[in-house]
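Note to self: the last two entries modelled the partners one at a time, which told us nothing about the interface. This time every component goes in together.
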Amino acid sequence: ARVRMAGRGAWGSRLSGVCVLLVCAWPASCLYEDQAGKVDWSRANVGRAAFALFPSAQREAVVASADGVVAGLDIQTGVTSWRRVLPDGEAVGRMISVGDDLLVTLGTARTASGTVGSVRMWSVGGALLWDAMLPEVGAGRSPAVAVGEGAIFVGSGTTVVAFHAATGEELWRWHAPTDKGGNAVIVQLAAKRTEAGGIASLHTYVIQERAGSTSRVLLTASLAPTDGKQLDKHELRHGDALAPTAEVQFVLTSDATKVMTLSVQSPTTILVHTLGSSKLEAVSLSTVWPSEAASPIVLLANSLPSAAALRAADGTLALISFTRAGTVPTLVRSFSPQAGAQAFSSASLAESAIAAVATADSSGQVTLMTLKLRADGSADGEWSATQPCGIATSDVAHGFEFWLNAYARKDGSYGSRLLISSVGDALQLMRPSTDAAQPVWVREESLASVTAATMVPLPAVPIDVDEGRPFFGLALPSIIEGIQEKVAMLRLSAEEAATKKKIQTMLGDAYGTRQVVLATTAASKLIAIHSATGEILWTYFVAPLALGAPPPTIRATFVDGSGAKATLIMLAADDARYAVLTLNPFSGAVLARRDEAKSLLHAAQLPHTHISSHRVLYLVDSQLQVAVHPDTPAARNELAANLQTTYFHLVSPTEVQGFGLLSATDGVAAARATERWAIALPPGSRSKLSYFPHSAAVHSPTRTKGDRTVLHKYINRNLVAIASEVDTAPGGEPYVQVMLLDSVAGRVLYTTRHSASTGPISILLGENTILYSYTSSTTAQPTLTSAELFVNSSAADDPLSLLLAGPMDTSLRKNQFDAFAAAPPKVQSQSYAYATAVSALGITLTHKGITPRQILVGTAAGHLLAYDARLFDPRRPFVHPSKMTAQDKEEGLVPYNPSLGGINSLQVISHRNTVARPRTIVTAPTMLESTSLVFAFGLDLFLTRATPARTFDMLGEDFNKVGLFGATTAMAIATVVSGWYVSRKELAAAWA
Amino acid sequence: AGMAARCLCLLLGLLGGLQAERLEGVLHAEGSLMGITVVLNSGAYSAVPRQDGSFVFHEVPEGNFLMEVYDTQRAWPMVRVEVGKTVPNGVTAVQMHNRQKLQMPMQIKPVLAKQDFFEKRQGFQWSSLLMNPMMIMMLITGGIMFIMPKMMANMDPEELKKMQEMQAAQGSLSFSDLLNPEKLKEKQAQAQLEAKKSKKAKQ
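The predicted structure of the combined assembly is written out below.
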């Protein structure tokens, strides 16, 4: 009866208490080995391909991405054969093959002491043979490289280092001459070959900037390959004609005789240096492009024999060659642009080279034209006829790049394959063939750059279509129906059965675990993934909103309606315009599109009303004018009705700004926004934000303690938790600041500061809890701090008052939460040492919010762990376990321990999978109260089901059905037999 | 040459006013080392193990570091590393779990060579079937059914008669009667009759 006093809240607590007991009764993890892969799936990505090689020893394509991943992909299937994820902050800037079975990646690595150059030598099977770090490289440049004589020569910053190709042992170092106070950067290395194939001399190209002068000098020095002794040095003219050091690009011909770069001065000229000479020739391109209309002209990085590839702004492509005698270029072949997107690639084939141009038309149909170049740079024949390669993903029509894999056939001809990376980051392999319909394989690498994800339950036909019959009917009819269906399935042919199965996977299940994960990516692509299988259902690439505009960013997605009638509203925006797209979340079909030539600032949904079946969206542009979507009088009225209670906020690196809405004065816009408040974030900080989802269920406003008294939770749906990592000026101490903000009133409700602490930070806001992670800068100890928010309540909770007052009328203003007047929360917090660095935090969400929550932790190592939320309860008592009070024990509190201990493998819900570089953990409820879907994304994706209190609302998979059946049957038999036995006995007794 | 490089690194570091150490170690584990990264201070400095398990942090400045091995398949020890001029040989490394000092290059073995992520599924057991409450109930009922008549048979005939009379007076129903509705009605009618009779007798 005392529990009842607290009203409904206490009832919830009692229920939760039952669940806590359930948690206590079983270990944390509930996954058996045979379940792995049935309720979860993972996807290992590579990221946007930046380089690709086709080692001849393997039937693999080796791809390096800008995200710092090197991977071998099976050329037949596209399956990852091996993958190496480089440390965070390391980028691959160049990849070259050495011989048949080795490759070198060069790039930059970020360490705590600064950016350094990195060189790694790999086997084509993905084994690292050796690695080295080099002094700081010049402004964003990757180190320059040359290979030969069993050595790898790398130029980085002002140093050239020679490494032994097999062992990585440093052979020698050479330092570029620098002026005092001046700046010098090695931009290119070239190895001049001898007739026998060895290296005659190593040529380095250094750009020098003299102190106090803007003029630049290009130096070339030749070094002895064996000991790094400087043989000669020349100062080349035209240094001022070079592009800025960070952008200047030198191209070495594949026969290593000439180094070329473009002059930035007008008219466009190409600067050519023949290895060993003391002059830099400036050759006008007027013979190739008579007019300047085609500028700017770009020198393509492809290495061709005695030739270079240039592309003009209009898409015209020209191949020019240099005869050996002089450097006057001759136009070898040109290629005029066609409708659609084009890309150029080349591949070497024995002594010659193949140049290729691929064109994609608006439907995604890819065609290829190739040209064979002889060793002297002249063309061997004309451009080949256009060869169709099939239809690629639709985004190739908006731009792509490709790598050509040319191979010689036995009959002397050559074949080719194209590895295409589209603007929407779809990596696909195509082959020229007259009957090719689609790519050999496609990998959606944009999934490495997922920015946000929402989950929409798949519609279940019995619920949404056949509304006359309840879905959860009596067991018998469903069993009969199931058997009938099974029989019907057996009668179908294999093909029909496959189609039927496909249709069925697109239908929801009774438990709501089948959902569509709608992932927005940084590559302007929206990807729908099936939550149960991990299969990609559809992709939608948002094309540039205007001709020549940059790719738009998908700013937000909103789900409207439910079941089969659910629609997805997607907002894509660039700097000057935005589009509102309405899509079917299950098929990806575009239902409506609205384009506006305004810069979008913010968009949000208005609360659900009973007036219209659709939720109204309001859109704020950079002029603070507010529009509604759909733009109807009804929607405008709805906005007008919500004007007083609608607030939004914007977050920039320096501040958080709050806005309110006012009625429009001009009559064109639906309303206008006005700034209400602004709160500055610490200067020079990096911040992370967390919100508790608006749709998430909160079951109880109270928490019952062991002595039956009640704590009132501070539940404020406007809360924003902001964690900032602040690097103070050199000499100062870095700190981490956490701020809790009411996003309506702009009030700072709670703020705390952890001195001598640094990132990486992550933060999680629960219904009335905050959890955040940071690292101590002195001990390097990763730490988690949790805080729980409570509030004083004057509401009477004795039985008489509750009886007299009756249920609370929440429509009354006085019973509602007032952001401006509510008292700030009482905060209780505790900190714990954690075993490893935390990259992402998440919390399970269930249908009604009754089930106790689990805290999900994504570690930098790639584990996804689930912890009982009680471990992060700030009320954990500071006593020895043996001295716990009975009340604390009853409440289910765990005695405080400053450390959360090591990683218990049973808590790793990602089990054998690695979730590389996790960024965010998104959770969604299912129809089962016990189960929550957990989707973790970063470089990799991982989706599983979390059951914090086990599946208490459904029979366990290991339930002994045979035992139950056996026991029931035995009981029935025993009943009949005993009845018969007794009646016989009675009869016998009667006769007696 | 490795030594020379190290000296050169040191020399360069000293010239620049900073001491930078080269930290080397070897991971001893069976199986692939593909997904492993070794980090200092949660990624301030990182190293990728080579084919033979060896790894190198190329230039580590003076300071205290916590070295971790990021591996999802095995559990590795954490190592406290101190780099500085005051430390003997420039570097000390201590394994956190057993306070064992490591010599350079560090030889590191996993604490757990294979992590067990799954719960053990309990197979079918007769004992669990027998301990099933329903089974226990059934066995006890069965037992009573067969033991009771035997007990009745061994009873004193007089006492038995007395008990039967008592039962008849209470109009008690046996379990088998409950299953037979006609017999049940009959018995109930009989009980009522007897009740009436006894009432009359009292009057």
